[in-house]
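Notes continue from the previous slide.

Worked example: a multi-chain complex. Inputs as given:
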Amino acid sequence: MTAPNVNVMMAAIQRRCRGKIPLVSIVDALNEKSLEIHGHYEWPWTKAEYNIPIQGTYTTGTVSVTDGTKIVTLSGGTWDTAWKYKRMYLGAQNTDFLVASFDSPTQATLADPVNFGQNITNGSYTIFQDIYPLPDDCETILLIVNPVFRYRLQYIPTYTLHWQNVYSRVFFSQFQTGFCDGAYDDTNKTRTIQFAPSPGGVAEYKLIYRRRPPALSDLSKITVLPESYYRGLELLAEYQVRFENQLPGWMECKSEGYQIISSMKRKYTAAPMYDTFAAYWQYPYFVDSSVYAGGLFVGPTVA
Amino acid sequence: MSTLLSTSTMVARLQQRIPMNLDGQFCMDKLNESYMWIEQQGAFVWNVKLATITLVALGTQVLAPTDMDVGKPASIYPRLPIPGIVAATTEIPYVPMDEFSLHEIYHTPTMQGVFSVFTIYIPTGFYTILFAPQTNAPIINTDYVVFYHMINPALSTPLTIGPNYFPTPDQFDTLLIDLAEAEIKRIYRLGGWAEALQKAQASASVELDKYRSPKRDLAGVQEQTKEVQEKSLNQAQAGG
């Protein structure tokens, strides 16, 4: 016997409700209760990994931009129009600009117009990226690890990160010490994080996180709940549709459903104690790394 | 369908019961009217039919079977398998038109071929089945099974005197005669017509309850009782 898929659970609920409930309402209820169950506790099966592809800097060629405008043109180099979340230093100015889009291999549009009081003509520049999108299903970050130097990055508040960047604004490194919450990307509907100091070379950081349960988006999908407990989800979804459609019997469904989920919680709270968030404190921060000494980072950098 | 008494026999018996030299066609008309009265009492198994309708790719509406009685319960579900998509095997419930638009938007991502509800309307002179949500329209032609109540041919084309039989089961033959007899007596003001009519209708009602196709009426009463209990309990818990 295998865990029932959405189709089977939906049919069971529909059968018990005498065929009165709109079908997609039942699927909605299954999804909503699945999210609710997963919101109650950090279930072990929601752990996931993702390699964050850290990007290096790009400085090839020279750029020109008219003061008060957003359009930057490049000569002597090639930009990738697929780049996102990039920032650009222009000339010797100690101000970076978010790049809204790379319109062509030789033209970019900044998020804000430059305000230097003078045009830049064939000036030097540096493109870098310190903002990275989180996976779509990321709910909670457990750990970000630099696997090469074997330390974990520290979560720091936004203001602390920017305060630290005051000193390291033109300092690029492959030794990021911390990260903070980045802005929400409205276009791509994605949460982001921001690293400090700004990455100077290509790397892979390992993100370990709690994921949101996958949506039960078609009838063949199976819930990620352990098979012994899937009935808890089914009953809670039935409770919801019965309650919303004013069908009697919702109280029994609610009661039995939450009993099953409580039983599941008791089991999974007791078993994997070693796998809780608290246990990750043992993973060393950068200050415990062999490449950190006396407040200085000793590691590869790109100036 | 009856196999017991033909319409010729039923007319003859009616004429025997009321020896007034009644016209045969007049008696036949009253038997047909009695049958219509029975059909008006609800949805019955002798009218249940099953048909397959084909929904054109990306479409959300399809013509209802031409003989479908849209005032009576119907049940629709996909005929499986549907190549290329995973469709619900479950009944698609009916909702009246004033609730239909509420089912066009759901939180769940688009699920091709999974319609949530259907309603019936008449856009071009023919009853049409309309599905929601529109976003779930399958990209290929899809067959659906429809259980429905037909408009019995005996209604649109009344039976004539001859070797013809009413669509109702055998035990309704005498009930039809009873009903027609009471009606004829009422027309001619013959004594006891009211009691005869009342008795015939009561007998017919008992028999009809056995043949009602939807069996949810009784369950409905039980559910109402339970709903009242639950509301009381919920209020008591909230108050406590």
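Summary box: Residues 45-149 of chain B form one domain. Chain B touches chain A at residues 75, 86-93, 95, 103, 106-109, 111-112, 114-117, 133, 136, 216, 219, 223-224, 226-227, 229-230, 233-234 (CB under 8 Å).
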